[in-house]
Amino acid sequence: MAGGKLSPRQKMINMMYLVLTALLAMNVSSEILNAFKTVNNSIITSNKQITDQNNTVYKTLDDAKQDPQTAAKAAVWEPRAKDIKAKSAAIYDEIEALKKEIKTASGLEMVDGEEKFKEDDLDAATRILIEQKKGDALYNKITKFKTELLGVIKPSEVSDNPVVQKQIAGDMENFAKTLPVKMDIPKSKTGTKYTQDGKGWSEANFHMTPTIAAVTILSKLQNDVKNSEAKLSDYCLQQLGKVKVIYDEFAAIASASTNYCMPGEPIEVYAGVGAFSDAAKPSVVIGGAAQQLVDGMATYKTTAKGAGNNVIPVKISFTKPDGTIATVNKDIKYTVGIPSGAAVALDKMNVFYIGVPNPVTVSSGVGDEKTSITLSQGSASKKGPGKYDITVPGPPGEIKLTVNADKVTNPFTFRVKRIPNPVATLGATLEGGKVNKGTLIAQSGLVALLKDFDFDARFTVESFDLVYISKGEIFPKSGVGPLLTPEMKGYILRAAPRDVYTFENIKVKGPDGQSRKIPGITFLII
Length: 526
Known about the structure:
The chain has helices spanning 8-24, 30-64, 71-105, 124-131, 134-151, 155-158, 162-178, 198-206, 211-238, 437-441, 486-493; strands spanning 109-111, 114-116, 252-256, 260-261, 266-273, 283-286, 289-291, 293-294, 297-303, 308-319, 325-336, 343-346, 351-353, 358-363, 371-375, 379-384, 387-391, 397-405, 408-417, 423-426, 433-435, 446-449, 460-470, 473-480, 500-509, 515-518, 521-525. By secondary structure, it is an alpha+beta fold. Strands 21, 23, 24, 25, 26 and 27 form a six-stranded mixed β-sheet that branches.
């Protein structure tokens, strides 16, 4: 059934029926059911990703209506994209309701927030989709949906230029042949003849089909709907040409050069607007006095006076793109110590991180030779006068560091935290999104990188899954270690526009020796 001159899609369908036929002669094994569950979960993940991509298209079209450069074209194409979205959502929800009905008939219940039902039930799909003829109805609705979807874009309504109309008409004819929604009825290799209508389609796909397999087939149909929506909505966006992107967010910034000092030590306060835009016309008042801006920043210098906690008020005003004035007030707080006391400054962060050396500076005012430290947990390695590396084993919580200065003890409490999760990248450069085939082929594996983290902490990739989605077909693969397997590289060599590659279930190990799972990344071939 899987041989001969058949398309890859047809081969996959025939192979599925071989499996389902075998299931009738034996008890359904958990391995087969788990295979269907894996494919179904991958399709659901793909559907969510395509929905997010489509929403970005609709948001761009909506924004284009507000831009004088693109408003005229957007007024033509944005309503059609919105109509495409509505038609897709309606049929998608109908299929989702049908999936729910089949699962309910198989004893659906929620256990610990997860759906549980009799996955090997051979009766529910047959009864609902064939005997109750809901499969016939779905077949007719999908066929009508495809016709209506193509009818949203009428050449005569979107342009009065005959040349453009002819081009759009040709594009629509091509979409009619290539849209992923296809209600093909496979030819039986066992002698069964299926009628070329909804009844034949239902019998070919759902007769004596286990519930989990029927749900997977319906999820695949939802995937076809979403991909068809994506093709036509992308086409609407392409008619606009380039859409101007405007950055219209500003962030007020205020910080001090130190938050702990001794009497007589200098203090500098920096304040400004993060966008550094002349149009924002920022004004900055620090300590009650207006400050001059240089390269978008104001610098205020003062001298620490008196012991204890102190505050320097900062007021920042700037003009937003809509012409209104925004004002932000910030308080710069710092503490002034006394010479006879002890101080501890963490050289990189204000917490101790598990599994890495945490550099600290200890001062007491009585001389380094009369100063020592003790820890409630972990160890300290002295690196020089007043310099230590603190290593803590965990778990997260608090640690007490005591400075012993000439027989006077000074306790300090610090937080203990795990190193934050790294970011998954492909080849240490790509973090997901749209990418061309050549760039993807050049990568050899996954790299977990720590972003904006002051310590030299490294993570190793232990394992990951790759889900390759092409023309609605799902190809999952698992790998151990960071490198792409030969099979995965083969999938990448097959890349074509609109193909999706998702790296998920990524497990990494950090300096603390603990394995953890990090968010995956997805690439769309352009």
